[in-house]
């Protein structure tokens, strides 16, 4: 007996594991370990080993097998329906496409600020209580920015937030008119979503080679059209 035709080490998943997955995908019914081993002309223990890995990766799943006669029914497996969850991702390409589209709009900065504000309000929705004080609001936002990878801290007077890392640095350099206003809107949206008495009225991108500066102000003093500072 020879392995199922068309299966090569370059099948989905690569090597023997890819062959097991390819047989499962090609079969209209769930298959047992013995059936898979017979089709691939390998030992059942080999199939069992690769099946466990495929199930763990979300590429295959166990299926209830009807009981026929005494004893436990054999375990049967099928490929996980839908797209392969273990396939490659290319979120950078998606980000490039979306930022380029924003940048092509007549007023990309205003559009990005609004998008960031909506994002920030969604993040703030997990905290239902309004911020009691400006200090509390700023401290909470700093923790949120830290979770997002901005490496933030505040000055002693809490008039500025220093952002020492940009999680979208490549895009911020190539599409600063979109990414920096998006970050401004994000911070504004978080504070608006918590009804905070403070806002970010200006973002100064790359105020120094190693940081951007978010300038804080009482919420009532924010300009009608929020602005980012100079771009790189």
What does it look like?
- By secondary structure, this protein is of the alpha+beta class.
- The chain folds into two domains: 15-79, Arc Repressor Mutant, subunit A (Orthogonal Bundle), CATH 1.10.10; 91-228, Muramoyl-pentapeptide Carboxypeptidase, domain 2 (2-Layer Sandwich).
- The chain has helices at residues 15-26, 33-40, 44-56, 91-103, 108-124, 134-147, 169-174, 176-193; strands spanning 31-32, 60-63, 76-79, 152-154, 160-163, 198-208, 211-218, 227-228.
- The strands form two sheets. Strands 4-5-7-6-8 form a five-stranded mixed beta sheet, with helices on one face. A three-stranded antiparallel beta sheet has the order 1-3-2.
- Strand 4 and strand 5 form a beta hairpin.
- The radius of gyration is 27 Å and the shape is elongated.
- The N and C termini lie far apart (65 Å).
- The relative contact order is 0.10.
- InterPro entries: WH-like_DNA-bd_sf (IPR036388), WH_DNA-bd_sf (IPR036390).
Brief account:
This protein has 232 residues and is an alpha+beta fold. It has 2 domains: 15-79, Orthogonal Bundle (Arc Repressor Mutant, subunit A), CATH 1.10.10; 91-228, Muramoyl-pentapeptide Carboxypeptidase, domain 2, CATH 3.30.1380.20.
Please outline the helices and strands.
Blueprint (H helix, E strand, L loop, with lengths): L14 H12 L4 E2 H8 L3 H13 L3 E4 L12 E4 L11 H13 L4 H17 L9 H14 L4 E3 L5 E4 L5 H6 L1 H18 L4 E11 L2 E8 L8 E2 L4
Parallel strand pairs: 6-8
Antiparallel strand pairs: 1-3, 2-3, 4-5, 5-7, 6-7
Helix pairs in contact: 1-3, 2-3, 5-8
């Amino acid at each position: 007996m020879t392995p199922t035709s068309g299966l090569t080490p370059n099948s989905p998943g690569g090597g023997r594991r890819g062959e097991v997955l390819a047989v499962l995908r090609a079969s209209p019914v769930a298959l047992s370990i013995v059936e898979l081993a017979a089709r691939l002309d390998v030992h059942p223990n080999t199939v069992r080993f690769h099946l466990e890995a495929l199930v763990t990766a979300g590429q295959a799943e166990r299926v209830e097998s009807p009981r026929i006669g005494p004893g436990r029914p054999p375990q049967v497996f099928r490929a996980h329906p839908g797209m392969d969850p273990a396939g490659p991702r290319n979120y950078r390409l998606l980000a490039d496409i979306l930022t380029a589209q924003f940048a092509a709009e007549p007023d990309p900065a205003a559009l990005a600020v609004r998008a960031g504000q909506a994002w920030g309000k969604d993040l703030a929705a997990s905290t239902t209580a309004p911020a009691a004080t400006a200090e509390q609001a700023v401290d909470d936002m700093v923790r949120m920015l830290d979770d997002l990878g901005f490496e933030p801290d505040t000055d002693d007077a809490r008039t500025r937030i220093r952002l020492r890392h940009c999680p979208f640095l490549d895009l911020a350099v190539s599409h600063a008119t979109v990414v920096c206003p998006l970050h401004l809107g994000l911070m504004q949206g978080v504070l608006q979503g918590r009804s905070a008495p403070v806002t970010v009225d200006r973002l100064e991108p790359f105020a120094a080679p190693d940081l951007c500066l978010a300038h804080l102000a009482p919420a009532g003093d924010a300009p009608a059209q929020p602005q980012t500072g100079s771009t790189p």
